[in-house]
Design a protein that fits this description.
It contains 4 helices and 5 strands, in the order βαααββββα. It has one domain: Alpha-Beta Complex (Ribosomal Protein L22, Chain A). α2 runs antiparallel to α3. By secondary structure, the protein is α+β, with helices and mostly antiparallel strands. The chain starts with a strand and ends with a helix.
């Protein structure tokens, strides 16, 4: 099973904003993930798309790759916080406010989906009959209507 990764470092966004978009593609196959990123209305989606394409290219160049890109899926993706640039913004009455320009390190891991292994001569679990559920017993503390009529 092929695994490849790509990382973009020092991307000018916060890790929290990037994490919101990365959560959309986690676990999806690469074609579906690229389509999702194309129509996501966040500026960071374009940078994540570049990283995902790089991870796909890294997987195709690995030895032992089957050659089928459709088998690849996003196995893991995350954004770690990078260094923050500190800036000073002038404020009223001679004061100054500190501004943090945050950066993030975006990593995307892709893996090849393993093929389904079916044992010969056995029936799949989906075809097996499901066991019937037991009916709920009436509560011992609440008398039934028949018992109430019998008392009268």
């Amino acid at each position: 099973m092929i695994q490849a990764e790509a990382t973009a470092r020092y991307v000018r966004t916060s890790a929290q904003k990037a994490g919101l978009v990365l959560a959309l593609i986690r676990g999806k196959d690469v074609n579906q993930a690229l389509a999702t990123l194309k129509f996501t209305r966040k500026a960071i989606a374009e940078d994540i798309s570049k990283v995902l394409r790089s991870a796909i290219a890294n997987a195709t160049n690995k030895e032992g790759f089957s050659g089928d890109v459709d088998k690849l899926f996003v196995s893991a993706c995350y954004a770690n916080q990078g260094p923050s640039a500190k800036r000073v913004r002038p404020a009223p009455m001679g004061r100054a406010f500190r501004v943090l320009k945050r950066t993030a390190h975006i990593s995307v891991h892709v893996s090849e989906r393993p093929g389904k292994i079916v044992a010969v001569g056995t029936t799949p679990a989906a075809d097996a009959p499901r066991p019937k559920r037991a009916r709920a017993q009436k509560s011992a503390t609440t008398p039934s209507k028949k018992a109430q009529k019998a008392k009268e």
